[in-house]
Amino acid sequence: MTxxxxxxxxxxxxxxxxFQYRINTEWGKLDPSRYPVENCHDFAIDSQGRIVMVTDxxxxxxxFYSKEGEVLDAWGxxxxxxxxxxxxxxxxxxxxxxxxxxxxxxxxxxGVSTDKWDSPYNKVIAQSGFVxxxxxxxxxxxxxxxxxxxxxxxxxxxxxxxxIAIADNGDLYITDGYGSDYLLQYNAQGQFIxxxxxxxxxxxxxxxxxxxxxxxxxxxxxxxxxxVSSRFENAIKRFSLKGEYLGTIxxxxxxxxxxxxxxxHFFAPVCWSHVNDTNAENSGFISIFDExxxxxxxLGGTAPEYIDGELQPVQTTWDIFKHCHGIxxxxxxxxxxGQWRANNSYPxxxxxxxxxA
Length: 357
Description:
single chain; mainly beta; Neuraminidase; six-stranded antiparallel beta sheet; five-stranded antiparallel beta sheet; 1 helix; 31 strands; 43% strand
């Protein structure tokens, strides 16, 4: 099979046991002349059941799909680094929280360079990122910019946020995964509360390295906690909502993004596998963890193996995904998967098959 060939993948079954899915590569495909995408970065589901995807193509930063894959709406030109999205219903009205990571396409791109981050001719160049709160039709409510405006950063510290999670009281938790690697907490009005993380802490448990994703674990209704990916540590770290370190969920070999919950399990997109001592190209997969935060399956990756209770390194099987970046899960367990640096591909739908138990 040709690696990552959409036609060859369409209809393929991936996974095992209770986690088997049929790959639908046709679900999200659109006319690229009308609805172009650069990278399919993240998803959310609104109260109408629409699948909302963010892409960093400024001709349509947000694309609204039906669950059948029909495009319902598309808009947005203001977010060259569109990277993450949350939709929160507040007093009966949905609001979009969109994270722009501060990357933008370079008009002076030499047509070749993609990873020469300090080159003036690289495909993307860095600016400061920001977070916005909007209505579903794009009306701006407020913007959160560089933390130096709140006295939380010095001007020389970069701010390029990557993800957001929202607590029941409205507090916002923002990962600065392409900037200074802090987790920043704001209140519902966007006012700064505190930060933690970064690198080189006296207690290394508080270090965050390429802290790409964050979500709130509500499985214990009386004690919600934060799950924060420390991507280049191949781990997810657990914190209280006040920032107290609670533990680490190891995932050796997997560069994990932000977890997404479905029941007692959570799923995490893996952008790269660690192969030959590097984060390898075209090596993504999706990891699944159980109610005890134990990795139990990898869609497009090798099966978890434990020796004396310790998880051994996992990696891609090379035949499904390029770089898994964002996922969401509907009410019956279907997965919608977006990829980074995947030849401008549209999202896949992984259709849940009945349990084999």
